[in-house]
Design brief:
Elements lengths: L6 H10 L6 H7 L6 H15 L3 E3 L2 E3 L7 E6 L8 E5 L11 E3 L13 E8 L7 E10 L4 E8 L4 E5 L8 E3 L12 E6 L10 E9 L6 H9 L8 H9 L9 E2 L6 E4 L8 E7 L9 E8 L10 H9 L3 E2 L4 E2 L4 H7 L7 E11 L5 E12 L2 E4 H8 L5 H4 L2 H22 L9 E5 L5 E6 L4 H24 L5 E3 L5 H13 L12 H11 L5 H11 L4 E3 L23 H14 L8 H5 L1 H31 L6 E10 L2 E6 L5 E5 L8 E4 L4 E4 L5 E3 L3 E10 L4 E9 L2 E2 L17 H18 L1
Parallel strand pairs: 5-7, 10-12, 13-20, 14-21
Antiparallel strand pairs: 1-2, 3-4, 3-6, 4-5, 6-7, 8-9, 8-11, 9-10, 11-12, 15-16, 16-19, 17-18, 19-20, 22-23, 24-25, 26-27, 26-32, 27-28, 29-30, 30-31, 32-33, 33-34
């Protein structure tokens, strides 16, 4: 009879031969034949029960080690640009081992979330445990879930935090990562989708207490994959940066530039100065200077700072924090145009005629020294005759000339007719305890419009200059609405008693005329919302397709390089075009221009979604103490499953589920955006005034559930305020508008 090897001998052999660890291979290695195989099978089973080995199909392996071939999930590049991967399956104790993925030249590129089948090699003496080389790509990462873990007797479940996602996920006992009950976790789908029962997932990261102060923005940062930790190499570059010398720069430190920003602004990347033009041929004209922080001097092509700035694409702004595109050393110090400190800039000198039209411009790489860092409110107070001690000395030389130039640009703006939407912006104030202190709408001053108009002029000048120099750049593109969206807007307008021109090339002046007709009427907000929804989303592109909303032929972002990568590209293009230095647009920048445009357009949308989700969650938290209260609002959206209401007080959006509106069937008209009651005739449409009761507020998802009490001043069908014994017929504002239009026609005929 053959000698059966000891358990230690079997384990040693498996460790040395991980690729050939089937029972047949083990028997052959130890010369075991015939009936002795039964004893070998018994020993292997004991080892498996003891957890020393793990059966994988027909082979055995050490569960504390990865097999020679394994499925991996690719992670994001680390701070040094190395690509690591996580094993899809890991049954060993403790965290999964670090696996360095080593791509070969010419192989298909892999990205974060990709799954690959890879050859695994164990290594020693490194900061990682294994190295992996691609065998083949298996596809993208499975579904990811962010939610609250609820512990069960065995394993548990995850309640997703995404608004509208009511499907829970089951977590097996060995896949909880020791998460605590109520903890915020990230998980991924485990195994194939199932037809019956809840889907299964495994927890891959624990994120802490979701109710902790300031956790709301952290949830959005993680949920949307916004990078919020700078690589060591980028920080090192920022820390080593020195203030740019005057050198060949144009010295503009004698000019009284000022920055005008929100009162809580931490970085100041634009400054301006204006004065009357002394050219007798340009009677009533003005000279406007706009100086923008010279970020390109510090963030050079293909540097660690550049790679990270491009990866982020833009800064992301939350009520309680900012995730900046650049480290604080640059964004808040060297690149910020602080009062009384010399700072390098790229400046544009613009000559405006008496009607505020730009007739010429020139660019300079320069040095300025801001005389004051002002905020919008104090500048407006000064303009209105109530200057504070800081502004009183600057009224004649600085503030008054700025407003004089702005008044001229208003004439040019009126001739250009950019889209003039009236959509107030919310301001959420966070207290020191991390909770919402107040919710209000931001004030809009002429000081805001002044800076906006000067920045638009500077952006136009940058685009025109680079077109003249025939240098590549990224245009800010905004295309006109699609015919389908225009038809939908036209239907809303006509139903409200107004008209939108048809059969001619659409211009913003047509839309402004419509908005002007609705101004001051009950349809004002309805038409503003509907017009906004008809618009396409602006994006970046190397080709110039114009900017419809601003009514401009050429437009590029130039004025915010601290917070937008697109502006940094435009700065580099200007440097290259004027031969101002070696830190201009590189050949690699030019080659990647289209890819960069797509990427930063996506990061912009990502930030907008994260900011919107965070605002919704903060508003839900703010309103959670007022469940049961009544609120006035206006219907802002209609869907098959209900309607959305924007509350007047906070601007928060909540859902009225269709099942709660009345005891009848509602017909949904997608083109007209209405719900019509089959029995009552109640028509629910965008823009109608409603009174609602807050039924539920869920801070962790940002969801608000509302109960309809009144619509256009009348009770809902079957509601407490509806009259008994009578069929309640309701006409929304749009229907009343049709009646009013018919009445006006009748009266004209009688005359």
């Amino acid at each position: 009879m053959n000698r059966i090897p000891t358990k230690a001998e079997i384990l040693a052999w498996i460790a040395e031969h991980p690729g050939a660890a089937a029972k047949r291979d083990i028997a052959k290695a130890f010369g075991i034949k015939g009936a002795a195989r039964i004893d070998l099978k018994r020993v292997l089973k004991e080892l498996e029960e003891e957890g020393a080995i793990e059966r994988r199909r027909r082979s055995f392996r050490d569960p504390t080690k990865l097999p020679p071939v394994a499925m991996l999930t690719i992670l994001a590049p680390d701070r040094d640009g190395d690509i690591f991967a996580r094993p899809v399956e890991w049954q060993g104790e403790g965290p999964a081992p670090r696996v360095l993925f080593i791509p070969k030249k010419g192989e298909a590129a892999v990205g974060e979330g990709d799954r690959v089948l890879a050859k695994i090699t164990e290594v020693t003496g490194e900061d990682h445990d294994y190295e992996a080389r691609l065998i083949r790509k298996l596809g993208a990462n499975p579904h990811r879930i962010l939610g609250i873990f609820r512990k069960g007797t065995e394993g548990g479940r995850i309640v997703p935090i995404d608004k509208g996602a009511d499907l829970e996920w089951m977590i097996a006992a060995g896949a909880t990562l020791d998460a605590k009950d109520g903890e915020l976790v990230e998980a991924e789908q485990s195994g194939p989708k199932v037809r019956m029962g809840l889907p299964r997932a495994r927890i891959v990261d624990r994120l802490g207490d979701p109710t902790a102060p300031r956790a709301v923005s952290l949830i959005a940062i993680h949920q949307h994959g916004i990078p919020d930790d700078f690589p060591d190499a980028a920080i090192a570059e920022a820390d080593a940066a020195k203030l740019a010398p005057l050198g060949d720069r144009e010295d503009l430190r004698h000019l009284p530039f000022v920055t005008i920003d929100p009162a809580d602004a931490r970085d100041h990347d634009d400054a301006c100065y204006a004065h009357a033009d002394d050219d007798p041929k340009n009677e009533g004209g003005h000279i406007v200077w706009v100086a923008i922080a010279d970020v390109a001097h510090y963030v050079t092509p293909q540097s660690a700072l550049d790679r990270e700035a491009r990866r982020r694409g833009n800064s992301t702004y939350f009520p309680d924090r900012v995730v900046p595109m650049l480290p604080e050393r640059l964004s808040g110090d060297l690149c910020s145009l602080h009062e009384g400190i010399a700072r390098p800039v790229i400046a544009v000198w613009m000559k405006l005629d008496g009607k505020g039209r730009k007739v010429s411009h020139r660019f300079a790489r320069a040095m300025i020294k801001s005389v004051a860092s002002l905020n919008y409110a104090e500048v407006q107070e000064a303009r209105d005759g109530r200057p504070n001690t800081r502004c009183v000395e600057m009224m004649d030389e600085v503030i008054a000339p700025l407003y004089s130039a702005y008044e001229a640009t208003k004439t040019a703006r009126a001739m250009r007719q950019p889209l003039d939407l009236d959509l107030p912006e919310r301001r959420i104030e966070i207290g020191e305890d991390g909770h919402v202190k107040s919710v209000a709408f931001r004030d809009r001053f002429d000081a805001h419009r002044l800076i906006e108009e000067f920045m638009i002029l500077a952006n136009v000048a940058a685009a025109e200059e680079l077109i003249r120099l025939r240098r590549p750049l990224l245009f800010r593109v905004h295309e006109e609405p699609s015919p389908e969206k225009l038809d939908a807007l036209r239907e809303v307008a006509e139903a409200s008693g107004f008209t939108l021109a048809k059969g001619q090339v659409l211009q913003t002046s047509h839309l402004n005329r419509l908005l002007s007709q609705a101004e001051g009427t009950e349809f004002d907000e309805l038409l503003n919302i509907s017009t906004l929804r008809s618009m396409t989303q602006a994006y970046y592109h190397p080709e110039n397709f114009g900017h419809f909303g601003l009514a401009l032929k050429s437009y590029a972002h130039f004025t915010s390089p601290i917070r937008r990568y697109s502006d940094l590209i435009v700065h580099r293009a200007l440097i290259l075009g004027h031969g101002w230095g070696r830190d201009g647009l590189s050949p690699q920048d030019i080659e990647d221009l289209e890819e960069t445009a797509t990427h930063i357009s996506e990061t912009e949308r990502r930030s907008m979604a994260a900011e919107r989700d965070t605002t919704d969650r903060y508003l839900a938290a703010y309103l959670s103490d007022r469940v049961g209260n009544e609120f006035a609002g206006r219907i802002s959206g209609v869907t098959r499953f209900g309607c959305f209401v924007r509350l007047d007080e906070t601007g928060a959006d909540g859902l009225i589920p269709i099942r709660t509106i009345g005891r009848e069937f509602f017909h949904y008209d997608a083109s007209a955006q209405t719900l019509t009651g089959a029995d009552s005739g109640l028509v629910i449409g965008i823009g109608q005034r409603v009174t609602v009761r807050l039924a539920e507020a869920v801070p962790v998802t940002g969801g608000l559930m509302l109960e309809l009490l009144e619509i256009e001043g009348q009770g809902r069908p079957g509601g407490a305020s509806a009259k008994r014994g009578k069929r309640v017929m309701r006409r929304p504002g749009a229907a009343r508008a049709k009646d009013a239009k018919l009445k006006r026609k009748t009266e004209r005929r009688r005359r």
